[in-house]
Design a protein that fits this description.
This protein has helices spanning 42-50, 74-79, 97-108, 117-130, 148-162, 178-192, 230-239, 242-256; strands at residues 3-13, 16-27, 31-35, 56-64, 67-68, 82-85, 92-96, 141-142, 166-170, 197-202, 215-220, 223-228. By secondary structure, the chain is an alpha/beta fold. The strands form three sheets. It has a six-stranded mixed beta sheet, sandwiched between helices. A four-stranded antiparallel beta sheet has the order 2-1-4-5, covered by helices on one side. A two-stranded antiparallel sheet has the order 7-8.
Length: 257
């Protein structure tokens, strides 16, 4: 079984340190949820994994199958099987979702050669049917005029079509009503059946009622400070993050004595 390993990762942007020694291992087939207050570094983590050049890796490493990927571009990381669902997907006028997906598929699977048009459209129709999406959705310009829920469903369709090995889902549940949340969650669960490793970044426990994590991690000030099962997410929902922060303060005070 292959692993995605984050080893003592320190990351900054514009000279400001955001991640301060984050370590985490995700195996294919596992779902890890990361929760934390605003400003804890969750989105920085997703950008660092995918190689956003705005984010500087000051120290530490990111390994895929035991090999560092720090020197790889975002495109090369996608070819290796990494996928990022954005918190705020960009609009691209004049480019249909179907056209975008076919080019993205070909770019992320260069070893397979270009997928034939008919084979691609058959695959696309199958995935859209599984996700209960109207076929006409594929002809719309990418995210242009999409509601928040439609943008997130578009991201999950991309996940289903590209079939990566690891998916980083950055607050995919934000701004979704309950019906859209269920649809998006069903898409994630379908993708997970293919031994997908998932890093699910969220503020809230509600998506974890539909996407069951194997592990839940709490992130505060650029570090993972607590890990557990889904019961940890339930406790956070009831008590908020303050109790975790108080625990950290008490532990720090004991260590100073």
């Amino acid at each position: 079984m292959s692993d995605l390993e984050l080893l003592n990762l320190h990351v900054s942007i514009d000279g400001k340190k955001i991640l301060k020694g984050l370590t985490l291992t995700i195996k294919q087939g596992e779902t890890h949820a990361i929760m934390g207050p605003n400003g804890s570094g969750k989105s920085t983590l997703s950008n660092a994994i995918m190689g956003n050049p705005k984010y500087s890796i000051d120290s530490g490493d990111i390994l895929l199958d035991g090999t560092s990927i720090l020197s790889l571009t975002p495109n090369q990381r996608a070819e290796k099987g990494l996928f990022l669902a954005f918190q705020y997907p960009q609009e691209i006028s004049g480019v249909s979702l179907a056209y975008f997906l076919r080019n993205a598929y070909n770019a992320s699977h260069p070893q397979n050669g270009k997928i034939p048009v008919m084979e691609f459209h058959k695959k696309l129709q199958e995935k859209m049917k599984q996700l209960k999406m109207d076929p006409s959705f594929a002809d719309r310009y990418l995210n242009e005029g999409f509601s928040g829920g439609e943008k997130k469903r578009s991201e999950i369709l991309q996940l289903a079509m590209l079939e990566p090995r690891y998916a980083i889902l950055d607050e995919t549940d934000s701004g979704l009503d309950i019906d859209a949340l269920k649809t998006v969650s069903e898409g994630i669960n379908l993708a997970a059946k293919n031994k997908l490793g998932i890093l699910l970044i969220t503020h809230y426990q509600r998506i974890l009622r539909f996407v069951k994590p194997d592990f839940v991690h709490v992130m505060v000030d650029g570090r993972i400070v607590k890990s557990g099962t889904s019961s940890l997410a339930e406790k956070l929902e009831k008590k908020g993050y303050e109790w975790v922060i108080e625990e950290l303060k008490e532990k720090a005070a004991k260590n100073r004595k």
